[in-house]
């Protein structure tokens, strides 16, 4: 059975139309950033984000291990 995606917290506050506009604005902002910077910058930025997430995961794993010991 497929898992049901949780609905976004803003769903109860924002209309469907507003959320569509926000999604489109996000998409257009991403396009503008891609046009502004060279592809190499975007590649390095993505790699940096991955490394930061891996570092955060390592800190969380260490904290869990510390609690369990």
Overview features:
69 residues; mainly alpha; 0% strand
Structural description of this entry:
This protein has 69 residues and is mostly helical. The protein has one domain (16-68). It has 2 helices and no strands. It has helices at 16-36, 39-68.
Instruction: Report Rg.
Output: 18 Å
Low-confidence stretches: none
Total discrete domains: 1
Q: Note the main sheet.
A: none
Helical amount: over 70%
What is the number of E strands?
A: 0
Beta-strand content estimate: under 5%
**SS field, number of helical segments:** 2
CA(first)-CA(last) distance: 37 Å
Mean pLDDT: 89
Give a nutshell description of this structure.
The protein has helices spanning 16-36, 39-68. It has 69 residues and is mainly α. It has one domain (16-68).
Show the helix and strand layout.
Layout: H1 16-36, H2 39-68
């Amino acid at each position: 059975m497929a898992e049901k995606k949780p609905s976004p917290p803003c769903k109860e506050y924002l209309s469907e139309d507003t959320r569509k506009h926000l999604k489109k604005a996000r998409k257009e902002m991403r396009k503008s950033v891609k046009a502004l910077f060279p592809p190499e910058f975007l590649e390095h930025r993505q790699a940096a984000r991955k490394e930061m997430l891996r570092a955060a995961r390592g800190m969380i794993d260490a904290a869990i291990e510390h609690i369990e010991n």
